[in-house]
Design goal:
It is a single chain. The chain is α/β, with parallel strands linked by helices. Helix content is about 40%, strand content about 20%. It contains 28 helices and 36 strands. The chain has a seven-stranded mixed sheet with strand order 13-12-11-14-15-20-21, sandwiched between helices. A seven-stranded mixed sheet has the order 24-23-22-25-26-33-34, sandwiched between helices. The chain has a four-stranded mixed sheet with strand order 2-5-4-3. β11, α4 and β12 form a beta-alpha-beta unit. α4 packs across α13 and α18 crosses α26. The longest helix is centred in the first third of the chain and has 23 residues. About 50% of the residues are buried.
Length: about 950
């Protein structure tokens, strides 16, 4: 038996619609004769759909999917006359095949009309011809089969099963039937140290594999489970991963396996996988675990050969699973893997550290104590650096950037004393467990505690956080990251070939990516080598550019620079106004704090404008000093006060107050209202010269609806607040059995919060303004709920959540949606509502929002400085009408960029107050996939 490689115009999933039930069933039968297998049927009130899969018999050729939908409201296509030339008609797919003769035999054996044409090859040295066959399926869709290669064909290859020897018409269906029995089997294991989010990755892999027509397996206890085999390798069903999202650690277990490090152990692992029929393995772990996986793949042929020689496997078994596909997911709280911006578990670990230090800060301040806090990270200081930024630490020690000089202890003590002299009552020093000095001597927490006690006579305590950093449920970011990477891992398995290196699934520039696994592992090892040879500059360069930038930013805002009151200094300083506009959002205070401290350290004078533009009109402007913003980084809400009022209330008074206080630039921290305020002042520049100065909008809104940025301050804090609430709600719903909660979330006309929180909590359905709500959609959801509750085991029904964005529909309110679901459920399940309201603004900002706020603020001050024009007599001037001088600071990928408010207008939906582009809609499709909502794909 051989494969027929086909390509469906680069379309992974072909969707065809049948207008009648008769044509629907006839079409399924028609495609089954071609080798497709029906794997899943979804029904609703209006439609029925069958997903069909065409399985490959070769590891080098991929599978493809077909969805046939029965929609009685559809239009029936007219049949094409056999007397017509079908080459002039539009086709739904062009299928490239390398066994066209066998397919023609199949067509000839069945009552299928087709037209056959020959196309001469353009190569003059070759007189042969290509063949093109045109035929129609029962729905009268034109399909083209050809052996002519597609010059634009991508790397994707799909398979059409048939036999070269299909000379007898009766044998062709039999050959296809044999291939339809083959299903890919994909196993996932977690290895090494556990990381929050691993369970979300397992859930993503299992459900994506099942949806793609594969069998999913979980290997328990890491590589030890591979070695032991038997019950340690278990087939997973859809509901086996129910509840995984909110669970910390790894449910399937992990272990550091000595046996797998030796060839005899890997021989056992190979035998166990082949016996289970598994030839694809997704490994979630650190660099050591992923290195072991790639070694396993490289040895696979020799392992099978040895197993055949020892009669552990038959030649047939070894031949059937000749290639092992490996895909790596990086589960590491240290965030120490190269070629990816972030790893699964790192952000949750940062949450645990910040929660601990926030708690320590209150007792430290009460007793005027110093605390030395040790965090994890052998060769990577990411956790220590981000925790230092997010908690406002006084000093940090990381392995990539040891303190310089022999007198670094004196410098640290001088810095901490300067902070104390300014009035600080607490001192926080964060030490990475792998911290060293420039001579590679370890810097320990105990050494730092003794130093602060002996040199500065501070009452000092030491706290080693240890494994508390690994614990607890994963945060929203890690749930979504692990879920998306788990789904991508399955796609990588299905796309893998023996000649392609094992891929590692990562995230770069806010996109899920595939990179060469072993290249990433090798680069990771280079960091430790660079540190070992004292090449600290090289070690920092091996980290991503944002890491270097954020270290410099931490030092820039932490150091208390004495203010030089000389006339020369005053002449070169700017007076910078800082104002909050819009609804409160987590991270606003952190941004103000960073802007104030960085501005003062740069020699400028920052002013806080209280209570938004009404406060500015009333002259509520006050100079902010270094200690005025102490502790603000962990404060939620807005210390300056904020509201939605616009400068258009009285542009003249706004201009007057800016001139009165001689403000030379303005930093606006807020939501869409801050953007429109910038537009108003930009448009009024010709009338009010006071507006002719640099202005920066730092986006801060839980709705994440500001144009020019992928993330706004506050959206991560809000996602975690929604996630916590929904976790509690699902727990209540599960305890009550057969209960659905319709949860209403904020977001305005943007569905960001609904989509991202829906993915993080495993929502059954998500309603967003971009799609709206219809009666047909509600009917689908009710039908789906009836199906799911009908499948639940008696007495073990799971609670379910539906997320509804507040502006999803004017007609179908949260109460109405809940009432419809309850009524149409016919007592099979109950329904309740939960309107979260302003609880979504959160309490203390999340670590990500704190870090982003600091980065935004420092870059904003740099932006203002970039528009200064120096005059030899009058000093710096900032008068400008340049449109680029009023800009929105935005996170694009891993970079902070500035885009003028005028330029952003073309990308902004002013009516609905949001950007035109929604990068997060891919997360919506993944949410539907993992909720088994194929009817919504």
């Amino acid at each position: 038996m051989s494969d027929t490689a086909i390509s469906l115009d680069h379309i992974a999933n072909l969707i065809l619609t049948a207008p009648t039930k008769e044509l629907y069933h006839a079409s399924i039968s028609w495609f089954e004769k071609l080798g497709f297998k029906a794997i899943m049927t979804e029904s609703s009130v209006e439609t029925t759909a069958t997903w069909m899969q065409l399985f490959s018999t070769s590891a080098s050729i991929h599978d493809t999917s077909l969805k046939i939908v029965c929609a009685p409201s559809g239009t029936k296509k007219l049949s094409a006359s056999v007397k017509m030339d079908w080459r002039s008609m539009p086709a739904v797919a062009t299928i490239t095949t390398n066994t066209l003769k066998a397919i023609e035999v199949l067509f000839a054996s069945l009552p299928w009309a087709y037209q056959r044409y020959s196309v001469p090859k353009k190569n003059g040295a070759d007189s042969s011809e290509f063949t093109v066959i045109y035929t129609h399926d029962p729905m009268n869709n034109l399909l083209i089969f050809t052996d002519k290669p597609n010059p634009f064909e991508a790397a994707k290859r799909l398979s059409e099963p048939t036999t070269e020897a299909a000379s007898a018409p009766a044998e062709a269906p039999t050959a296809a039937s044999e291939v339809r029995e083959k299903r890919r089997k994909i196993a996932i294991l977690t290895s090494g140290g556990d990381a929050p989010g691993m369970n979300a990755a397992v859930r993503g892999v299992v459900r994506a594999a099942i949806t793609r027509g594969c069998d999913a397996y979980a290997v328990h206890e890491g590589y030890q489970g591979l070695v032991d085999g038997g019950n340690m390798i278990r087939k997973m069903g859809w509901d086996d991963v129910q509840g995984y999202l909110s669970t910390g650690g790894t449910v399937i277990g992990t272990a550091r396996c000595k046996a797998f490090r030796e060839r005899p152990g890997r021989l056992l692992a190979a035998r166990n996988l082949v016996k289970e029929g598994i030839d694809a393995l997704v490994v979630c772990g650190g660099d050591g675990s992923l290195t072991g996986a790639d070694l396993f793949r490289s040895e696979w042929p020799s392992l099978l050969e040895e197993l055949v020689k020892t009669d552990e496997l038959t030649s047939e078994e070894a031949g059937k699973y000749a290639h092992l596909n490996i895909v790596g997911l990086v589960g590491s709280i240290d965030n120490d893997m190269s070629s990816t911006d972030i790893t699964i578990g790192a952000v949750t670990c940062l949450h645990r550290i910040c929660e601990s230090i926030d708690s320590i800060s209150s007792t430290a301040s009460s007793h005027s104590r110093a605390f030395v806090v040790e965090v994890m990270g052998r060769h990577c200081g990411w956790l220590a650096l981000m925790a230092g930024i997010a908690t406002g630490a006084d000093f940090i020690f990381i392995p990539e950037r040891p303190p310089s000089g022999e007198n670094w202890r004196d410098n640290m003590c001088a810095e901490i004393k300067a902070h104390r002299d300014l009035g600080k009552r607490k001192t926080i020093v964060i030490v990475c467990e792998g911290a060293i000095d420039s001579n590679l001597n370890p810097i320990t927490s105990k050494d730092m505690m003794d130093l602060l006690t002996d040199r500065l006579h501070l009452d000092t305590r030491m706290t080693i956080l240890g494994h508390v950093q690994r614990g607890g449920k994963p945060c929203a970011f890690d749930r979504n990251l692990a879920t998306m990477q788990g789904v991508e891992a399955v796609e990588a398995v299905l796309a893998s070939r023996p000649d392609i290196p094992s891929p590692m699934i990562g995230m770069n520039e806010n996109k899920i990516t595939r990179t060469d696994l072993m290249k990433a592992v090798a680069l990771t090892g280079e960091v430790a080598k660079a540190i070992g040879r004292k090449d600290f500059i090289g070690a920092m360069e091996l980290r991503d550019p944002a890491f270097n930038q954020q270290y410099d930013q931490f030092m820039a805002i932490t150091t208390a620079v004495p203010i030089d009151e000389t006339a020369e200094t005053k002449k070169n300083s700017l007076r910078i106004g800082i104002i909050n506009v819009g609804a409160p959002a987590g991270g606003m205070n952190a941004a103000v704090r960073a802007a104030v401290r960085y501005a003062r350290n740069r020699g400028h004078v920052p002013f806080g404008i209280h209570n938004g533009f009404p406060g500015l009109m009333a002259g509520q402007v006050k100079e902010l000093k270094w200690m005025d913003v102490d502790g603000w980084i962990a404060h939620g809400g807005s210390e300056l006060g904020t509201n939605r009022d616009q400068p258009s209330l009285d542009l003249g008074m706004v201009s007057y107050q800016l001139q009165k206080f001689n403000l030379q630039s303005l930093i606006l921290v807020g939501g869409f209202e801050a953007y429109t305020a910038c537009l108003e002042m930009n448009n009024a520049r010709n009338v009010y010269p006071a507006f002719c100065m640099p202005m920066v909008h730092i986006p801060a809104t839980i709705s994440n609806n500001v144009p020019g940025t992928e993330f706004s301050l506050g959206c991560d804090t809000s996602l975690n607040a929604i996630m916590d609430a929904c976790d509690a709600i699902k727990q209540s719903a599960t305890a009550s059995r057969k209960r659905v909660f319709v949860v209403e979330v904020h977001g305005g006309k943007s569905g960001f919060l609904a989509v991202m929180s829906g993915l993080a909590v495993g929502a059954t359905s998500v309603y967003i303004p971009e799609e709206g709500i219809s009666l047909a959609r509600l009917q689908k959801d009710v039908h789906h709920l009836c199906q799911r509750y009908g499948e639940d085991a008696e007495g073990k029904s799971q609670g379910r959540v539906i997320i509804r964005s507040e502006s999803a529909s004017k007609t179908y309110s949260t109460d109405i949606v809940s009432a419809i679901i309850k009524e149409e459920g016919h007592q099979q399940f109950d329904s309740r509502t939960a309107i979260l309201g302003h609880i979504q603004q959160g309490n203390s900002p999340s670590p990500l929002d704190r870090v982003r706020a600091t980065r935004f603020a420092v870059c904003a001050i740099d932006f203002v400085e970039s528009h200064i024009k120096h005059d030899a007599v009058s000093g710096p001037t900032v008068y400008t009408k340049d449109p680029s001088s009023i800009a929105v600071a935005g996170i694009q990928g891993s970079n902070v960029s500035f885009t003028s408010v005028e330029e952003l207008l073309k990308d902004t939906d002013m009516k609905n107050r949001k950007p035109n582009q929604t990068w997060w809609m891919d997360y919506k499709r993944t949410g539907n996939l993992l909720a088994r909502r194929l009817d919504l794909l």
